[in-house]
């Protein structure tokens, strides 16, 4: 999948501002908006949980600019368990190792922790993803 799974948005200069799970609205006409998604934390392809987010709680500031998290995140079973257990530091460590999150040379708080905090605040609860 190109660009990386759960791609983030580009800023005005075209620089990637970090990976986000894709917004289903960006999948114009896709019959299954979850198809091809990867885990928002580790980048794994075996996602089993969908977390819709409250759209009125997905805005935040990153690098001094307004940013918005997508309307849902997908998680694999292992990351779901870490999320449910409140293991944010372990999830952020997984994000650092995942190929899709761009964070090297940047502030981990802005690039990784803020999106996780927004996810927790906006999460409307998990839903099992039906097997296809």
Uncertain spans, ≥5 residues at pLDDT below 50? 1-30
Quaternary structure type: single chain
Task: Indicate the proportion of strand residues.
Answer: 15-25%
Tally of domains: 1
Percent helix, as a range, is 25-40%
Write down the overall geometry. globular
Strand line-up in the sheet with most strands: 4-1-5
Distance between the termini: 19 Å
Q: Over the alpha carbons, how many angstroms does the gyration radius reach?
A: 14 Å
Q: Topology as H/E string?
A: EEEEHHHE
Q: Give the number of helices.
A: 3
User: Structural class of the helix and strand makeup?
Assistant: alpha+beta
In total, the number of strands is 5
Mean pLDDT metric: 73
Q: The biggest beta sheet, please? A: 3 strands, antiparallel
Q: Can you characterise this structure?
A:
The structure is a single chain. The protein is α+β, with helices and mostly antiparallel strands and 132 residues long. The chain has one domain. It has 3 helices and 5 strands; from the N terminus they run ββββαααβ. The protein has helices spanning 77-84, 88-97, 108-122; strands spanning 47-52, 59-62, 65-68, 72-76, 127-128. The strands form 2 sheets. Strands 4-1-5 form a 3-stranded antiparallel β-sheet. A hairpin with a 2-residue loop joins β2 and β3 (65-68). Residues 1-30 have low confidence and may be disordered.
């Amino acid at each position: 999948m190109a660009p990386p799974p759960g791609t983030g948005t580009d800023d005005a200069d075209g620089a990637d501002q970090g990976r986000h799970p894709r917004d289903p609205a960006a999948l114009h006409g896709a019959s299954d908006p979850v198809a091809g998604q990867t885990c928002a934390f580790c980048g794994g392809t075996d996602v089993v949980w969908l977390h819709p987010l409250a759209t009125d709680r997905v805005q935040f500031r990153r690098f001094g600019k307004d940013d918005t998290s997508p309307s849902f995140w997908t998680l694999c079973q292992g990351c779901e368990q870490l999320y449910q257990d409140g293991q944010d530091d372990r999830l952020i460590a997984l994000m650092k190792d995942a190929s899709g999150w761009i964070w090297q040379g940047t502030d981990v708080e802005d690039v990784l922790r803020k999106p996780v905090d927004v996810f927790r605040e906006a999460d409307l609860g998990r839903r099992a993803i039906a097997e296809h």
